[in-house]
Specification:
By secondary structure, this protein is α+β, with helices and mostly antiparallel strands. It is about 25% helix and about 25% strand. It has three domains: about 5-90, OB fold (Dihydrolipoamide Acetyltransferase, E2P) (Beta Barrel), CATH 2.40.50; about 145-205, Dihydrolipoamide Transferase (Irregular), CATH 4.10.320; about 230-450, Chloramphenicol acetyltransferase-like domain (Chloramphenicol Acetyltransferase, 2-Layer Sandwich), CATH 3.30.559.10. It contains ten helices and 22 strands.
Amino acid sequence: MARDVKLPELGENIEEAEVISVLVETGQTVSEGQPLLELETDKATVEVPAPFGGVVSAVRVKPGDRIKVGQTIVAFDGAGEKAADGDAKPAAKAKPAAAARPARAKADAGDSRAEDDGGDDAEAPDEVEEATPEEADESESGDEAAAAPAEAKRGPVNAGPAVRKLARELGIDVAAVRPSREGGRVSLDDVKRHARELLGMKPRAEARPAAPAMPDFSKFGAVERKALSGMRRTTAATMARSWQLIPHVTQFDRADITELEALRKRLGERAAAASGAKLTLTAIILKVAASALRMFPKFGSSLDLESEEVVYKQYVHIGVAVDTEYGLTVPVVRDVDQKSLLQIASEIGSLSERARQRKLGPDDLSGANFTVTNLGGLGTTYFSPIIRWPEVSVLGVGRAAMEAVHGPNGFQPRLILPLSVSYDHRLIDGADAARFQRWIAEALEQPFLLAL
């Protein structure tokens, strides 16, 4: 009997990926767990394993295709026929691509740069375009009036208070709204889409103002066009989405790290000899940020407007923006509050190196509830980092510089570190952000607090 293999879930909020290579061909006998495709998601290269064995009867994708979760990629034992419900086991989750593929991970130890945790405003892995319900609607009947009664009979509706309120205000029966999310939960976007359909309006994606036509630059001189990489496309989409969804505010502060830097240099060689880890300022900042998130848990939470709730997380996983030749990526250091400075430093070094070699897997890029982006290595000062939805805050770090600071004994040279915190103003007030940022600054100014 024919059995279709569909693209499984690739990670948190990842809905599509680009096909890098097809690893099987028609007529080939494949065993369970054997890789079928190699894909590039927003920040990683992954392989899709076969969820069951069989003979490949058709390959539905080719290199360069953009494919979505749930899309058929390979057919077994019967070209083009769809497996009966319950016939095939659920597809296995995609796993990171083998590091041995030199074509995709060709950075060698000699070419790798020293740790540079700098990057622009972080995204997300977690970050990543949503699957649009409009695309699914194109293949369905346009007769909404006929469809609504049938949908209204589907039983209790899975929808939050905010969704039900919007439906009531628009005069819409929430039971008639087709959910786009897995599990049948109706979202605010579903209600808005349903209202547009009833009014004969274009879907939201089509209704957005079109960008002006690009000028013909070739009139002024020679030009060259290069396609955006899959990573850059997703980064662009993630940043645009985060900027549209979150009302950003950025506040700036500074920390006197004169004593901290002297202590770091004094202990750095000893730390490297003991563990091989480089004790960087980024590692120290992560440790301080983890303590701050325990003191101010709102900054590591998420805002769920549909249920009108704040999601407080009982863990501290921090994303670290890393600049690579392929683009910005944000690997995640987990349980930062439970690790020593040397453990954090070692993990940052390992993740940064794997990021530059494109050896990160989906698990390395998901789960963060806060992000740190350090541009100090590039010489910048203050900047406004963009929050990665569904996070609600991000810390930007600039380059420390010596300044003349007036004190009890007159002007003294002090090493000053620029700090920038962007936050979601729907959840976090300016006074909250000021206290949070000042707590971080004061912890950096008094190194002994790190041991408390």
